[in-house]
């Protein structure tokens, strides 16, 4: 089959699931955001990576989901990233796929936690200090064998509690 025909043929949904089981990531980053309610931002994202030589595969995955962006992992990188960062798009396009064609390996646990965090954000659970901390703690249970996080859980929780103390004193 020619390269053109391969691009035209839709990827099998189970192939997509298997690909994400091996090469994908459901992650929730927590990073400082001075203008947010507690000084931190909870940011769910679905990603997968491939060498630039396999750009066509990422384009087919992007076409399958009809969303996301493909961009270099870094300024001088030979690795491309397919990312879906919009919570609404993740909820409407990514999650239904993985519920219909479930992950079969250890990544299924990360997916379940990812969904809990995403749905917690949708329910505005992060609007309370307790809810925000609960979502951060859930996020920290994900990807136990992945890269280390830039910020420690204890540091984030301490700053959230401190920021709400400061807010209470300012309002008094």
Structure description:
This protein has 172 residues and is of the alpha+beta class. The chain has a single domain, classed as Endonuclease I-creI (Roll), CATH 3.10.28.10. The chain contains 7 helices and 4 strands. It is globular.
Give short descriptive properties of this protein:
single chain, alpha+beta, 4 strands, 172 residues, Endonuclease I-creI, disordered C terminus
Strand order, main sheet: write it out.
1-2-4-3
Output the CATH class name.
Alpha Beta
The CATH topology is given as Endonuclease I-creI
User: How many strand elements?
Assistant: 4
Percent of residues in beta strands? 15-25%
Short summary:
This protein is α+β, with helices and mostly antiparallel strands. The protein has 7 helices and 4 strands; from the N terminus they run H-H-E-E-H-E-E-H-H-H-H.
Write the SSE topology.
Blueprint (H helix, E strand, L loop, with lengths): L2 H6 L4 H11 E9 L7 E12 L3 H11 L3 E4 L6 E6 L2 H14 L6 H16 L6 H11 L13 H19 L1
Antiparallel strand pairs: 1-2, 2-4, 3-4
């Amino acid at each position: 089959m020619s390269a053109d025909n391969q691009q035209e043929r839709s990827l099998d949904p189970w192939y997509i699931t298997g690909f994400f089981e091996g090469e994908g990531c459901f992650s929730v980053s927590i990073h400082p955001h001075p203008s947010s309610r507690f000084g931190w931002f909870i940011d769910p994202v679905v990603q997968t990576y491939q060498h630039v030589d396999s750009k066509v595969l990422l384009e087919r995955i992007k076409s399958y989901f009809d969303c996301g962006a493909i961009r270099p992992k870094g300024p001088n990188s030979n690795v491309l990233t397919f990312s879906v960062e919009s919570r609404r798009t993740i909820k409407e396009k990514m999650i239904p796929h993985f519920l219909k064609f479930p992950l079969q390996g250890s990544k299924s646990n990360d997916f379940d936690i990812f969904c809990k965090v995403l749905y917690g954000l949708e329910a505005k659970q992060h609007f309370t200090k307790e809810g925000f901390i609960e979502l951060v703690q859930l996020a920290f249970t994900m990807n136990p064998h992945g890269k280390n996080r830039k910020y420690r859980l204890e540091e984030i929780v301490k700053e959230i509690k401190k920021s709400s103390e400061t807010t209470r004193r300012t309002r008094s």
